[in-house]
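We close this part of the discussion by returning to an individual protein. Part of our work consisted of pairing the sequence of a single chain with a tokenised description of its backbone. The amino acid sequence and the backbone structure tokens for this protein are reproduced below.
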Amino acid sequence: MFKKYLPLLTIFVLILAACQPLTTATPETGPQTLTVMTHDSFSVSEELVKKFETDNNTTLIFIQGGDTGSAINRLILTSVGSPTPEADVFYGLDNTFLSRALDQDLFEAYQPAALDAIPAEFKLDTTFKVVPIDYGDVCINYDKAWFAENNLELPGSLQDLTNPEYNGLLVVENPATSSPGLAFMMATIAEFGESGWLAWWESMKNNQVAIVSDWETAYYTNFSGSSGKGPQPMVVSYASSPAAELIYAETELSESPTASLVSPGMCWRQVEFAGILKNTPNRALAEKFIEFMLSQDFQEDVPMQMFVFPVLPEAVLPEEFLLASQIPETVGSLDPALIAANRDGWVNEWTNLMFK
């Protein structure tokens, strides 16, 4: 009997189902993706990255774009005028390349709340298309043991470096390919003026200054103070580099084996910025990342990760970072408009002089 009525029962069930209101299951929203391009020296603690990802339901993707100059060139080629920029945020632009990036209209303006607490000396972009994140002083580092063993006095100025006793003892980075190299070139222009800086470099060429393409090669291959095997006991680096030598020494040390030459006229203050790339489809999330970079947690992470100083005044600096870092009393500076008008020409002049 039951089998006889089964077809009718099936029809009845289908009719009831058709009369029920439709319900749609809401799929779980997966994490968004935020792409951040940086220079090759960028570093941040893994726990901070995970915290940002968790707090914002996102996955961070970091792209290393090379040295600052190379990364800016890459952005100009891939992102100017593009409806789909290669990244959402860029970090690592510095004050020597600032005008070039702004002239190319790479970034969208944004003023995070934390910007009010940042000292005016770091807020070099009045349009707020990029915001300052950290700073470091580009200086000459030297190998303490080498100078002691060779009973040689330290140079007290850039001019001293042209003396015969320092022949072949300094390695510098090419300003056309290296951010610290460009910063150091700017220091020489600030010190000797537009009419005298090339003469200083010609004297250095005659004094066998070594030139390499990037900071990594200069510091880890040429500099004797890091590897102990390099031919040059002086290198263009940062006034905080000796802190890294002390903290990451293979055996515990009471002091750093290196130090910096911080006499007036020998250093250049490099300020690094971050900005939201134009036409990003993730504007709101990009704003949160800028805010994250200016948070106290991130700012206090900066010294031990990248060995530069945070721009947030209330950020607490680790004792071991301060122990071996040197802060110059005065640093070289040039009007940003002067840099904008002459940077490329100065680099060409330097290249023609040093490589002819």
